[in-house]
Amino acid sequence: MGDFGVGFLYTRRQVIDKLDRPVVGYMEGDVEAFYPPYLPAGAYVPIDYSLKKSASGMFDPGTSGFVGSAVSSALLSASLNYIKQIGPGNIKAYRQPLLRRLREEVPRLGFTLVTPAESTGGNITFAKRDVLNSGLPERLQAAKVNVRFDRHWMRLSPSVYNDMRDVERFLSVLA
Span 17-27, mean pLDDT? Predict the structure, then answer.
């Protein structure tokens, strides 16, 4: 809920070797992302990379803030105060009906749910062949619905800044 790529993590050096890497990068190179069920046939290595064994190597997947540090600091301060005021548990609880509705309806409209059904996280991803070239991104943009697209998938991130009307507007454009 702050600028793209902004976050904090503190890790003691003594425990780095005991940690599991939660993700592997985002902007390390030219990557064409394929989500199941659209993986290409045969051997598939999307990128060649080496991973650093440090806190930044473990938890900085390559994103960076897109605005200046003074603006990022102001955005981060406002976001952290807002999150503290609402409470992370309340944010998580609030988005569950939005995610549930998306999980139920989007597959009925021809998409495959990629995010595990039991996930309570803030993102939900759906796959469909060539969705990027389907005209859907343009229709959603015209309806002022912001969705992250790639060639064969789309990701939504509903949170406290959305309500069920936003989900229904998305679903009506999708239908």
Answer: 63
